[in-house]
């Protein structure tokens, strides 16, 4: 969590916080989708995270993917922007958020999938039929288009 969000949490506690975020769609050569299993027990997610103060969404997605997967990516296009009550989430520690997420299609430039972020428990590529449930309800049609 960024120091800015931690500072806000110090002021508002667990109350609902609206956060801008980014998420990445990354496929392997076979078309399988890269997912991240969160270490905190939140389940599976796209590589994603909050945008930091002064950071563009494009820079945020590159940083978040590197931290959470060890992959260097470039964003090839914005798929869509999601938000609203369906993108509310309560973390195991009680913090409530509602994300406004810019979803990027990304291409891997380099890397071997060695992450540096303690948020990641494991990574895996999944076919549409084998995909675990995600913490946020991204439309499957957007993830495999």
Q: Main traits of this protein?
A:
single chain; 145 residues; alpha+beta; 8 strands; globular
Question: SSE layout and pairings?
Answer:
Elements: H1 3-12, E1 17-25, E2 33-38, E3 44-45, E4 48-50, H2 57-69, E5 72-82, E6 88-90, E7 96-110, E8 120-126, H3 140-143
Parallel strand pairs: 1-7
Antiparallel strand pairs: 1-4, 2-3, 2-8, 5-7, 6-7
The main β sheet shows up as: 5 strands, mixed
Percentage of residues assigned to helices: 10-25%
Tell me the structural class.
Answer: alpha+beta
Q: How many H/I helices?
A: 3
Basic shape? globular
Beta-strand proportion: 35-45%
Overall pLDDT confidence: 93
Q: Helix and strand succession?
A: HEEEEHEEEEH
List unreliable stretches of 5+ residues.
none
The count of β-strands is 8
Question: Could you tell me how far the N terminus lies from the C terminus, measured between alpha carbons in angstroms?
Answer: 31 Å
Radius of gyration: 15 Å
Description:
With 145 residues, the chain is of the alpha+beta class. It contains 3 helices and 8 strands, in the order H-E-E-E-E-H-E-E-E-E-H. It has helices at 3-12, 57-69, 140-143; strands spanning 17-25, 33-38, 44-45, 48-50, 72-82, 88-90, 96-110, 120-126. The strands form 2 sheets. Strands 1, 4, 5, 6 and 7 form a 5-stranded mixed beta sheet that branches. Strands 3-2-8 form a 3-stranded antiparallel beta sheet, with no helix packed on it. Strand 6 and strand 7 (96-110) form a beta hairpin.
